[in-house]
Design goal:
By secondary structure, the protein is α+β, with helices and mostly antiparallel strands. The protein contains 18 helices and 20 strands.
Length: 686
């Protein structure tokens, strides 16, 4: 065994490689658990290259079943989550496209339950790691439950679910030391990425600001897969689902996210919980991208490839309704932890496509719930129970709650008049879309799935300069944690196929070779919808710290607070102690936050009003608060003693800094406008 000293001093390629190999380094043949040698481990068995996945694929079922049952009792992935109840209301009938009843009548509100989550970390990890976020919604419709199991990225790492256990094993804490928690910044993940280059597009999103959302309320959701809408006449359209947050899509900056993980590991769930309690409900508009079947092959990518998005400029998103999350859970375990989502929970009018990742998920979810929730009756747990009646001949099993009466539990039967009976399609019975399938049983992927870099380049082209720098910084941090130098080089070479400038910038940070420029993608197209610079920006519900000490200007501060609250900005009074802080006119404001309990990372903006009786320690902490907010590109307002402290810090005053040289109303308006702008990225060049 190689000791730690040798690890630290292992500079040559051979020494490093030897360290990372296990003691048992003998090359082995891949087999099933029954010892059957395998000729394929990356593609599931399908009916033709673009056909559905077949249940007879015993290796896929064994591999996925074992993976689904690895963790007890928390979820294998998406263990860290938080939820809320709400309702969905339709803007316009979708009858021409789908017969799903909850998408027919704008006057009917459908109850929903939504769970947001991180993917990689354990249930006890922090809210703010660099990670994908789950965005799963259960619609309790009159026809049964429909689950839209979405993410905050429109794509995924892999094209076929056969690889899902592999990517999760790679990104989870490494098994020999169970580190790092809730992070992909380690060797096994980036080794996997370098060996599975279909992940290039997803990794670009993961290194971007999208991976560190400011709030669940400010996070997009995407159904990822192409589904089908089917109408009353049996005509089908391809469809992708989108959730668009009314407040826009916004993110933290990396340093801020890291500090929040220590200061408030519950930052995102606390934001959702407190916002709903205050009546600032989380709102999202539901959008759909719809394609006629005849348009399936009209694009330079395969519409069934889950590593590809449908650019909104090519396939517009049609907004059809709004979800409002307006009620917090009553019990986190009973609701948030026991809720069971499944992409296979659909209603008549919504059906599946041959997306190979979707096809494998249809098997995996039920299998996972069987272990996690203790048996086949998880549908009877209150949070999972449909609002419409359900009847079938399924019986017994762990945790059965239904008391079935009578002697018959089978069909066909005469003793109970063949009840429960099937329902034909015209009367609401689910009937699978009759897609014509031809092809040999095969473990292979269509050549239309082979381009892994064009949309990664599209994403890069769509970013603002600030967003591009954040992606470079993301790669530099994450891959910089990799200890095995050849993996770092492989990653730089891989993303050289996306953009040479990106790869060169990462290479410079990692001290590896720059790949040649002629291998980069030739794509020049951009999709403005992908940049968060083009999202709605509002001051509403943004959280502002008002920093005061005894002797503050009472009339001015109270007027500014009044104006902020009128603009629906959340105001938090912060001082060096809790309780009443006395103004120069002997009025008081109550501080509920202190320098010790909070820092600037907990707020979107800061107003430093100071106070004539502030001591040197207060002044020092206020300046530190101000400096950190400035470094995170946040709006800052200063007046009175706060203005003097700002000048003493010698910070530039032209970018998102409002200095009180006018009446409180004008000062407030300028500050509210700055809060609506959110960040001032041009500070990075000052």
């Amino acid at each position: 065994m190689i000791n730690e000293d040798k690890k630290i001093n292992a500079n040559s390629k051979n020494e490093q490689l030897e360290y990372f190999r296990s003691a048992d380094s003998e090359d082995k043949e891949l087999t099933t658990n029954q010892g059957v040698k395998l000729s394929e481990d990356e593609e599931s068995l399908t009916a033709g290259e673009r056909g559905p996945t077949l249940m007879e694929d015993f290796h896929f079922r064994e591999k996925m079943t074992h993976f689904d049952h690895e963790r007890i009792p928390e979820r294998v992935v998406h263990a860290r989550g938080f939820s809320a109840h709400g309702e969905f209301e339709l803007y316009e009938s979708m009858k021409p496209y789908t017969k799903a009843k909850f998408l027919q009548n704008p006057n009917v509100k459908t109850p929903v339950f939504t769970r947001f989550s991180t993917v990689v970390g354990s249930r006890g990890s922090k809210d703010t790691p660099r990670d994908v976020r789950g965005f799963a919604t259960k619609f309790y419709t009159e026809e049964g439950n429909f689950d839209l199991v979405a993410n905050n990225f429109p794509i995924f790492f892999i094209q076929d679910g056969m690889k899902f256990p592999d990517v999760v094993h790679a990104i989870k804490p490494e098994p020999h030391n169970e580190m790092p928690q809730a992070s992909g910044a380690h060797d096994t993940f980036w080794d996997w990425v370098s060996q599975n280059q279909e992940s290039a597009h997803m990794v670009m999103w993961l290194m971007s600001d999208r991976a560190i959302p400011r709030s669940f309320r400010m996070m997009e959701g995407f159904g990822v897969h192409a589904f089908r809408f089917v109408n009353d006449e049996g005509k089908a359209h391809f469809v992708k689902f989108h959730w668009k947050p009314v407040l826009g899509t916004h993110s933290l900056v990396w340093d801020e996210a890291e500090k929040l993980g220590g200061k408030d590991p519950d930052f995102n769930r606390r934001d959702l919980w407190e916002s709903i309690n205050m009546g600032n409900y989380a709102e999202y508009e539901l959008g759909v991208q719809i394609l006629e079947e005849k348009e399936e092959f009209n694009f330079d990518f395969d519409i069934l490839d889950s590593t590809k998005l449908w650019p909104e400029e090519d396939v517009p998103v049609r907004i059809i309704g709004k979800m409002t999350l307006n009620r917090n859970v009553d019990n986190v375990f009973a609701e948030n932890e026991q809720v069971a989502f499944h992409v296979g929970n659909v209603v008549p009018g919504i059906d599946f496509t041959n997306d190979p990742l979707l096809q494998t998920r249809l098997f995996s979810y039920t299998d996972t719930q069987l272990l996690r929730l203790g048996g086949p009756n998880f549908h009877e747990i209150p949070i999972n129970r449909p609002v419409c009646p359900f009847h079938n001949n399924q019986r017994d099993g762990f945790h059965r709650q239904t008391i079935n009466k009578g002697q018959v539990s089978y069909r066909n039967n005469a003793l109970a008049g063949n009840s429960p009976h099937t329902v034909d399609e015209k009367n609401g019975g689910f009937a699978h879309y009759q897609e014509k399938i031809e092809g040999r049983k095969i473990q292979s992927r269509s050549k239309s799935f082979e381009d892994h870099f064009s949309q990664a380049k599209l994403f890069w082209n769509s970013m603002s300069n600030a967003e591009k720098q954040h992606i470079i910084d993301g790669f530099s941090f994450e891959v910089g944690k990799v200890q095995y130098k050849p993996v770092q080089q492989k990653i730089v070479d891989m993303f050289g196929k996306v953009d040479h400038g990106l790869a060169a910038a990462i290479a410079q940070k990692l001290d590896v070779s720059v790949p040649p420029a002629n291998i980069q993608s030739k794509v020049t197209k951009a999709s403005p919808a992908l940049s968060q610079e083009n999202t709605p920006k509002l001051a509403e519900t943004r959280k502002t710290a008002v920093i005061i000490s005894d002797g503050f200007n009472g009339a001015e501060v109270k007027k500014v607070i009044e104006n902020l609250q009128a603009a629906k900005v959340q105001v938090a009074i912060l001082s060096d102690r809790l309780g009443s802080i006395t103004a120069d006119d002997n009025s008081t404001l109550k501080a509920k936050h202190t320098f010790l309990t909070d820092s600037s990372v907990a707020f979107d903006a800061v107003y430093i009003a100071g106070g004539m009786k502030a001591d040197k320690m207060f002044e020092k902490k206020a300046k530190m608060f101000m400096q950190e907010a400035f470094d995170h590109f946040k709006p800052i307002a200063v007046s009175n003693e706060g203005e003097q402290w700002f000048k003493e810090k010698q910070l530039p005053s032209k970018t998102g800094v409002v200095i009180n040289k006018q009446q409180p109303d004008d000062f407030s308006k300028q500050f509210i406008d700055a809060i609506a702008a959110h960040r001032f990225w041009d500070r990075s060049i000052l």
